[in-house]
What does this fold into?
Amino acid sequence: MSTRVSSFHLDSFLQNVETRSLTAGIVGLGYVGLPLAQLFTSLGFKVLGFDIDQSKITKLMGGESYIGHIPSSVIQNMRKDDRLVATSDFSWVARADVLSICVPTPLDKARQPDLTAVRKTAESLVPHLRPGQLVILESTTYPGTTTEIVLPILEKSGLKIGEELFVGYSPEREDPANPNFTARTIPKVVGANDPASRRALEAFYGAVFDQIVPVSSCEAAEMSKILENIYRCVNIALVNELKLLCQRMGLNIWEIIDAAKTKPFGFQAFYPGPGLGGHCIPIDPFYLSWKAREYDFSTRFIELAGEVNTNMPYEVVARVVDHLSSQGIPSSTGRLLVLGLAYKKNVDDCRESPSIKILKLLADRGFTLSYFDPHVSGYVSHRYGRLPGIELRELTDDVFANTDATLILTDHDAYDYERIVRLSKTVIDARNATRNISADRDKIILA
Ligand SMILES: NC(=O)c1ccc[n+]([C@@H]2O[C@H](COP(=O)([O-])OP(=O)(O)OC[C@H]3O[C@@H](n4cnc5c(N)ncnc54)[C@H](O)[C@@H]3O)[C@@H](O)[C@H]2O)c1
It folds into this structure.
C-alpha cells in the first residue's frame, strides 16, 4: 500500500528506523502503554514514557511496577542503561522521534465519548513538536478522531502534516494476561492519510511487530478496532441471552457451547458471564453509536447488546436471591462471600467490572457481604471507592463457615476451587469455574 515518497525528514526518519537509533515516546503508561514500552525497549529502542500521573513516573523510575501481570523485575530490566526514562515533563517530547498516544477514552456521564485525555495530550505535544517526528494515536475511538480532533490540534505547531510531521492511527490489541500472545506477535493494523505518514508508520511498526496490516486511512484503522470490539460485545450478549433461556429450559449453556464449538468452521465460542467489564468492550461500541448519529444511522445491534449485557448483573442477583430464599434465607439475614472483583480472570483491572455493580445490588437487598480477590486485594476500595462489605485478605475456613453461599464472579486461576466447593454451603458460579470439580456437584448453582 506504500507509495514511493521521499523528503529530507522522511528519509532521515526511515534511516533512524533502520539503524534502531530513534527514541520512541509513549504517552500514557497504563495497561496498553507500559507493555508497548516493554516491547520497544526489548528491540533496542530508547523509550521516553510520558504520563500525567506522577506516582506512576516515580514507581517506574524506581524500578517498580503498578500493573499486576507485569513484574517489577521487568521494569528494572527496562530501566537498565536508562533504556526507559519516564517523565511528566512534556518538554522532553522534543527528544522523541515517535510519539505513541495510549491515553484513556472513556464515556462521560451521558455515555458519550470523552476525548478529554486525547485532546489534552495533543495540546501538550504541540509546543514541543519538531520536524521529522511521527505521532501515532493508539487509543480506541470512533472513526474520524485522528483527522477531526488530533490533526487540527497538531497543526497548531506550524508543522506541515505529511511533510514535516507524520501522523497515523494504529489500534492496540493488547489482551492483558493472555499467555498465548506477546505484543509483538499480535498483527498491528496501521493507517494514515498521506503517503509520507503511511511510509513512516509502516516502517517503524514494521520494525517492531512481526506483522503489520496496512489499511487505506486513519478512519479505516479506527473502524477496524471498533468492529473487533463490537463483534465481541454482540456475541457475548447473544450467549448471555441464550444462557437465560437455557436456565429457564433446564439446559446448561456451557455444555451446549462446548458441543457447538466442536464444529471445525463457522462457529467461534463466546461465553456467558455476570456482565461485561474492562475499559474496552462495554465502552468502545458506544463511541461508534455516538458517531453514527451524525450520519442519521442507528446502530441497533450495539444498543441491543448493551441492553442485554447491562442486565446481566441484575440476573445474577435475582438468581442469588431466589436460591437463598428457597433455602429459607431472606436477603436481610443472608451472608454472602463474593469471589472476584476484577472484570476478567488473572488481572487486577476492576474498571467497569460487573462484580462491583453486583456487590452494590446485593448490599441494596440487605445481604451481609465479604469479598476477596487475590489480584486486587488491599487497594480496591482505595481505587474504586468504598465497596459494601468486608474486604478479606485471605480465605480462611472460618470465612466459609460463616457464610450462606459463595458467589464466584471472576474465575481466577489462583483460587483453589476444590477447597471452595468443599467448604462452601452453596456455590453460585457465574463463570462455570467449578466445571472440573466432581465432588459436591449438588452444592453448585450455575448463574
Ligand atoms: N486495557 C486494555 O486491555 C486495552 C486494550 C486495547 C485498547 N485499549 C485502549 O487503549 C487506551 C488506553 O487504555 P489503558 O487501559 O492503557 O488505560 P490506562 O488508564 O491503564 O492508562 C492510561 C494512562 O494514560 C495516562 N493519561 C491520562 N491522561 C493523560 C494525558 N493527558 N497525558 C499523559 N498521560 C495521560 C493515565 O495517567 C494512565 O496512566 C484506551 O483508549 C483503551 O480503550 C485498552
